[in-house]
Amino acid sequence: MNYQKYVQMLKAMADPNRLKIIDLLSCGSLCACDILEHFDFSQPTLSHHMKVLQTADIVAARKEGKWQHYTLRAEFIATFKQDTARLLASDQRCVCHTNACQECVSGKAVITNEET
Amino acid sequence: MNYQKYVQMLKAMADPNRLKIIDLLSCGSLCACDILEHFDFSQPTLSHHMKVLQTADIVAARKEGKWQHYTLRAEFIATFKQDTARLLASDQRCVCHTNACQECVSGKAVITNEET
DNA sequence: TTATAATATAGATCTCTATCTATGTAAGCG
DNA sequence: CGCTTACATAGATAGAGATCTATATTATAA
């Protein structure tokens, strides 16, 4: 689990406007001008948000003529779901990834699964 | 899907220290002093982070003598997983929740599932 | 080539937030 | 009671980030 990458994704998602952009893109690819229609902020602000989403590897861009088409990355969807599942694993096994958990070290946590 | 609540959870999680706290708590309940041992920041800073996590309904606190015991809320785990799954639904159906998606309105998105 | 349309970049500003020190509160102990 | 321990609150500060206006870039069309 790539802690840093997961935090970067969370940060990129933790803005209502960017979350809405991700939601819009879950319908399929859109160009910048189409996305912009759904918001009140300016075009440079959208450009900024799209850059944040690209830097976090959430969104991919491909240029076609004058237009920039944005798409949700399949790898982001898979990675984010997987990391979330691991962080919030609901089985009894301690899944702390910090390597600093006293519970894990002391064995107080219920570890029921010996594989891996 | 409660958009605002989901954003609040994402914001609370989108800090490396708070994410580590969540990870530590996935091993089971811990008191503030135990959590603090895993970090370099001051006690008031931890107090601040715990408040953010409580306000987002990620963590529950119960006082026992001098100690504050913190636990991950089961409802948070369920809600966050569910909202994430809905946002990033991998089927072909458009799952945009913004009520503003032109793709959805125009029917360009592939809607394969007619149940609700 | 000139004009227009789509997008990016630069720089400024204002708000939010993570952190600190200092202090307050509350519980247990001698 | 006074002391210590565990935690919260208040207030200040420094850095990050969301937004804007102005301008640059790139592509197409007339």
UniProtKB/TrEMBL annotation, chains A, B:
InterPro entries for the chain: ArsR-like_HTH, ArsR_HTH, HTH_ArsR_DNA-bd_dom, HTH_MetalResp_TranReg, WH-like_DNA-bd_sf, WH_DNA-bd_sf
Keyword field: DNA-binding, Transcription, Transcription regulation
Domain of life: Bacteria
Signal peptide interval: none
Keyword presence, ATP-binding: no
Keyword Transcription regulation: yes
HTH arsR-type domain ranges (all copies): 1-92
One Pfam assignment: HTH_5
Name used for this protein in its record: ArsR/SmtB family transcription factor
